[in-house]
Amino acid sequence: MKDAVLYLEDGTIFRGTSLNTHGETAGEVVFNTALSGYQEVLTDPSYAGQIVVMTYPLIGNYGVNTEDVESSGIHVQGFVVKEFCRTHSNHRASGSLIQYLDDNKIIGIEGVDTRALTRHLRLSGAMKGLIATDEFDPARLKARLSQTASMDGADWVQHVAVKKPYVWKCNGDKKYSIVAMDCGIKRNILRIFADMGCEVHVVPPTMTASEILALNPDGLFLSNGPGDPAAVTYVIETVRNLVGKLPIFGICLGNQMIGLALGGRTYKLKFGHHGSNHPVKDLESGRISITAQNHGFCVDLKSLNPQDVEAIHINLNDKTVEGLRHKKFPLFSVQYHPEGAPGPHDAQYLFGLFTDMMDKHKK
Amino acid sequence: MPKRTDIKKILLIGSGPIVIGQACEFDYSGTQACKALREEGYEIILVNSNPATIMTDPETADKTYIEPLNVEFLEQIIVKERPDAILPTLGGQTGLNLAVELWEKGILAKYKVEMLGANYEVIKKAEDRKQFKMACLRVGLDLPKSAFAYTMEEAVSAAGEIGFPCIIRSSFTLGGTGGSIVYSREEFEAKAKLGIESSMISEILVEESIEGWKEYELEVMRDKKDNVVIVCSIENLDAMGVHTGDSITVAPAQTLTDREYQEMRDQALTLIREIGVETGGSNIQFAVHPKTGRIVVIEMNPRVSRSSALASKATGFPIAKFAAKLAVGYTLDEIQNDITRETPASFEPSIDYCVVKIPRFTFEKFPEAKDVLGVQMKSVGETMAIGRTFKEALQKGLRGLEIHHIGFDNKMDYRFVDDEKMMKRLREPNASRIFYMKYALQKGLGVDRVVDVTGVDKWFVAQMLQLVDFEREIMAEFAKDRALSARTVRKAKEWGFSDAQLAEIMGTSEAAVRQMRKDMGIVATFKVVDTCAAEFEAYTPYFYSTYETEDEAILQNAKLSRAAKGPRRKMMILGGGPNRIGQGIEFDYCCCHAAFALKERGFETIMVNSNPETVSTDYDTSDRLYFEPLTFEDVMNIMDVEKPDGVIVQFGGQTPLNLARRLQQAGVPIIGTSVDSIDVAENRERFSELLNRLKISQPSNAIASCVDEAIAAASRVGYPVLVRPSYVLGGRAMRIVFDEETLLTFIDEVADVSRGHPILIDKFIEDAMEVDVDAICDGTEVFVAGIMEHIENAGIHSGDSACVLPPHTLSEEILGEIKDSTRRIALALKVVGLLNIQFAVKGEKVFVLEVNPRASRTVPFVSKAIGVPLAKMAARIMAGEMLSDFPALPDIEHLKQVSVKECVLPFSRFSGVDIILGPEMKSTGEVMGMAPTFGAAFAKSQIAANQALPKKGSVFISVNENDKRHIAFMAKRLHDLGFKIYATKGTAKVLRSSGVAALILDKTGEGERNILTLLEKSEINLIINTPSGKKSQSDMRRIRSMAIRHAIPCITTLQGAWAAVHGIEASLKEGFTVESLQAYYSRS
Fold it and tell me: Do residues A328 and A185 share a domain?
């Protein structure tokens, strides 16, 4: 155990102690309000470039296991909690969280007044931060933090996306063949597709429209991913070329890229949505889903042509757009995570809407 | 969807008296519902028999009926009020059962009353075991495996499928013998055979045993558009096998991965949809196998429950309020979350702290009962604690329990704990197991072994071990340095160690530790409970303490000061902590009233309490709520931040009163009657001096601080004497002793309770009538608000005694003397606020038994009987107003209505306990009967207390020598009313000589015509049995316990018998009418 600090861009310092991995790490500091699911959070590629603060104070209670991973490794830059659990308990656990962080060389700090930190981020907005375990001088911390890149305009997708295409096999009979553009895809999305009889061609985000069409898929899926959507221009270009040619479904970053491909703009939210309890209303059915969310950017509905695009879901907390649909083409997307992991399964019906769309398109 | 406009009037049924398993959480939910629905413009008709509730305040509903909760009375109310709808899901099991009964009897259909929230089919589907099982299976949910068997072949094949261990339950046995658990085939065959034989329909249920599995609860809400949210998850520390009400529970769930939690959440959603609870809250219990993770559904409550109250307080999400709004047609997204003011109720709370609930037991009141916990609930109250870690919350909870533990402490030195006893206390769930877990860890038993023996999940045990290990580190550091470093002290405070715990380690005082840590800059900080883990701004000031860097209470106070036009006037009210026998809802009622009244008068009110069941811990009740243990340390921490102008300690019962002196010494501005006056009233010598000066009589008395003094004092005062340790509430350990031998036994037994306080000895005045008086004094004037004549003789604790207001047998002279004494005592004590005096009247002589210059248990009853909110008045007077500032007070001697208070006893929960009443309080709750005459009011009170007097049938009479000459006249009247009279030989002789044809019964249980067989056959409808001498005979004891089992009213005093005769006469000759409080008051 060693003293550690979290130095924020605005000069605020939060103190804690580090686990066994020492040094420095920087990233955009965001808070997540989910009560469970820290392993999924750690392994969610969308958190690349970010230091995650868990608002629930007791983290590590049920250890880690080999199943609840959303990618092949940990993607957060740093992990900030009130208290790491020393003795975990769960029948599926294969190890402790502390060991897991150490094995992955992730700096985790505890003993932080995470509520004060969360309030600070809420009031001042998400900002960059630096965790340091050997350096406590504010001036030097400031200097080092200023050398790190900003989240705005940063393309983090290239760091987490798959480099070579691969196929995620379906469970049981194959009913659909889809292409999933991997910008940092969460495995639970693939698991759900597989359970629905979709064979998924997971492809790098650099794949072009013609390459995708050459695979002759029933539909295209645009995944979640980290960073500023506006920086991922190559994907936006590809999507623009595929609109109307294939049924398209996007989640999170996928939703933002669709917004951009359709000519809209995205903007940065003050402190984003990260958690498992956000109410989203399906404007068509009136149905409310409690959703998992993890995004710092949002599509500006006003920037889209109302003749072509409409909002189909809104967030009931802050009324931001949570889903889009093209009025003429088979295309829809959501800003939140219907796959949960962590989070509720209320909106899993959306995967069914996508297969329905593919069915219709096939005819 | 807007609210419904086709309904205007809604009937709400409360849950009746406080009993084990149904406490003030339903006052909280019912009151919230009333407020929520009236806000929407509905007219609310409220029925409840419990006067000590906020819901029965005449301001809470439009029409308030304090009437017995049964179908007959409810039908009368329905006929009179013609409500459009009934809301059955907010009044506990009582309210739900009554609604079902009203439906089954066709009454709801007849008067076109619609059931809101959950209809009849839904309730049946959730509550009927078979229907529930079918529903679960239909939607693919797993349950403990079970099968019915009628033959041995079927039984054996069922066991083969289910495996061992399993539980065998025999259906339809007399007296409900319960299930037995079997571990092997051989054992199974023997028990199954016995089970089939003892079942009247030769049916047994063979069920998979899930004892030892992890237990969880989810609080679910649904609206009519099928939107469902989970408000809170709760994990029980105690494994399956201990009733959830008796378990230590933790929110949120700690040891489920998200995948497992979401699976459980999905199941909860599926289940509430299948059962079809249309709107409102439900509670679903699950068990999870600790090794395989298999999830099974245990049960579902299609209504607001005790757990919903806990979940509401744990998250800030007001379940009952929203359930009420959903019931009239709103959807979750149309309801605003009042904490954030910008987000809707259609979300799932996220919390950034850990909540621990710990039950409070009262086994010390029932020494014959074993303190072993099982599937039947036995706790009488609970405390909840909030901390940033489990360790902190657990320690706060343990000190908040007010059972002389100062945390996860060392009440016993583990080295002196017997190993064998310890293992037994670990294996068998019981009230103090948590402390034995500590001893076991201290002895080095190891986490895994403790887990094995107790079934408590490893996570919890490991957390406890952290506390044990760290405590050892603190001790070692202190032993080495004779001081503690700031780092250690800070960590200790973060982990919930109290100043008192540290003081114990350092061999110093709590005050010294407090000073030391303040000098180190280690002070409590307050955080907000905001439903959203700080994601949104919170407007609701609901705080808990912890040791962190930022204090939101200070921030909020600074903001309020900036916004205030003038100086802020703040009043702090200290609540009563967890419910227990002797200190319950009545005191919470008073605290709420203080908050309401002072808020109305422009004060900012600050509530401090640790009981999640209460209205006082509703964040709507006061301006700021501090959910904290009521200890010196925790209260002082709040003082430091709030610096109120006044603090009220009079209203929360003994809990705050016990803190009064220390708080005052620490400079806390206690308002109302001075701490010194409280001491005069509680200090026997000073009190006797006062009464002598005032020339008011009291029974001769003495104080003894050692055994020899006690023996001498008792013989000087003269036996029988009433003995008790000083400074106790609810007559704890109070007893009437008749000789030296019993006196010595008593002194021995109370060594633990009295804790160094002396023993008080009073002459016990036999055959005296007891009178209770509640009054308000402003220092110069006195308002005698209520004079209550007890129905039982003095010697029975006033809390256990029925009483009538106005008094019906006392002469003008005696009433005059009582009022005069009350006035003089109040003025002499310079009482500012409430005052309660107990008098004994023997012949023409009046004695003062006790003076309590504080809110008494009867304040709500008197307030309702006379239609004056006494606690509100008292709070205003304490804040500086005078009695003359109030509008004309009613003439309490000429009330149009008679009110009777009756208590409700928990004997049926504690097998083997004798039901004889004495000076130690044993009741859990009370009911009120109101009528134009004493007889009818008494009869109503008996119906409400679930001991309805018979209108015909047989009465069994057996009385002691002294009572025999009085009983004849009563027996004659009962006989004339058509009752058959049975009596024991001696009693029958006296009755016959007075011309009552009494049939002789043998009470020892021999022969055909013995009392036990007649009771068994339900041929006796009323028992009048006064105990003889100091020890009740064992056969009478059997009679009384059988009476409880068969729910036959059993009267144990002569005065009670008189009242019963009046009551029976009234119910036969007058019948009953129902009347609302509002109607009563408008007439007086």
Answer: yes
